[in-house]
Amino acid sequence: MSLVIKGARPYGEGEPVDILVEDGVIAAIGAVRVPEDADVLDAAGQVLLPGFVDLHTHLREPGREDTETIDTGSAAAALGGYTAVFAMANTDPVADNALVTDHVWRRGQEVGLVDVHPVGAVTVGLKGEKLAELGTMAKGTAGVRVFSDDGVCVADPLLMRRALEYSTALDAVIAQHAEEPRLTVGAQAHEGEQATRLGYPGWPASAEESIVARDCLLALHANARLHVCHVSTAGTVDVLRWAKERGTKVSAEVTPHHLLLTDDRLETYDPVNKVNPPLRTGGDAEKLRAALAEGVVDCVATDHAPHAPQDKDTEWSAARPGMLGLQTALSVVVETMVKPGLLDWRGVARVLSERPAEIGNLAEHGRPIEVGEAANLALVDPDAEWTVHGAELASIAANTPYEGMRLPGVVTATVLRGRITAREGKIC
Ligand code: DOR
Asked: Is the CB of 90 under 6 A from ligand 1?
């Protein structure tokens, strides 16, 4: 079976071209003859990008299949332009052993919409007491290369040091949820003017920045790879710049919500805006956007976090933190980065696909759109807009903070190894 994408502009550059895909691989670019049996995607006026890669998503399977499954999460990912996602380990049971990580990988392949790469836990049960068997997870079918206790911080510096040291032998990366827990006991919102005025116990920026600084030093001394999850403060950007200048192998992600939303949202008292780390100030968001454009922050990751109504639509202090992100990420990046001229489409490919694929060690994603490369692709209508409705998203949960918002940029098709997985907002 072959596929022809007609009249797309790769990276939004140059004249429109046709792309012929055969056996899952890009076979020709230019004016191509359409084979008789070919599927044809009419892509006039559209931008062709490498399929997106999400380093940070919560698919809730096993354990909370009432909020998301590998099936529904994969659908949300495909509709959002993703061809690969990394599923965080804070499931129930925790993905701290090869039985669970291999199950997640296999289930993702059965569903077949995106490659679901399980993230292995760093510590047993995410308890922060004892290292999990990273080597067994790395050697399993899933070939785990990203380890994280995300949701909680690996707070013990000795454990973190050991995890970093051990990861070097596995060619893996430790992704840290940077939150010094002693500084965030009872925290509900960004510690600042808004929280003080409205009476929310504060989550100080220093709780993130102190862990990032510590871990950068530990990674430098271990010559290990550290990835910082959901960077949320201007101060963390300064720490990352300092560490990178010293040759630390550190990478970092920012979420779409930290690029667009601020703690002004606290005024609503609506727990859909509760997230960890919390929404910060306008100044933080502005610095994060500049850091992403410059590359100090490497990529965008969604922290897609589905929650059931009984866990989310409650009083603020009882609500779980987290928001949906897979189907809105591209649009938020267009709104915050492309529209203001901070990134062109090449830059979008870099932050949504190429860098995350490199950080996650994926060989076949985030690759150049060239003959001989695997056809993992996303097609985007740059001029279209859409209105977000949580109930219409593919996730089981509906906790989007963008409800009713009109956003620019529409993913019109996603292609995984030459197969169309999503087209015109529908799963194929
Ligand atoms: O807001 C968040 N939700 N932050 C995290 O780190 C975990 C996530 C979740 O699992 O719901």
From this structure: yes
